Amino acid sequence: MKLHINGRDLEIADAAGERRLIEFLREDLDLTGAKNACDIGACGACTILVDDAPLKICIKRVKDVVGHRVLTIEGMAAPDGTLHPLQRAFVERGAIQCGFCTPGMVLVAHAFLLKNPRPTRDQIRKAINGNLCRCTGYQQIIDAIEEASVHYRGAEAPAQAAEPAHV
Length: 167
Description:
Blueprint: E1 2-5, E2 8-11, H1 21-28, E3 47-50, E4 53-56, E5 69-71, H2 85-92, H3 102-115, H4 121-127, H5 139-148
């Protein structure tokens, strides 16, 4: 069975297909950005992107992403570790505090900005609605997404890392 994660193809045993995706990524691939918090797909801490769409993976199996492009937070940075402009905006705007929700929040924002590079603040609020944060109060997160939206506009399409930081 083949998986395409963070720009790389991986061959895995067919038996892994029934494993929970969150556990497989964290335990087998050491991609620990996605967190298992609620176990029912409600909080967004486990969010990754599948074909550029957010997917809450605490309720998904490995087999659910076979044949699709998977992007985890680890695949957002450049191979040399340079943060993606969206990640930098989160840091610079203080949109991270404890950091637990940050990977899922960044990926949801990335998917949203790929579709809407000129969002209003209200559209940003709606886009991150399914991701909970207990620390920031959301204002800094909205500010960071708004600031990073400039990167997604026009000819300056988002530069996803061609090769992931690590898989």
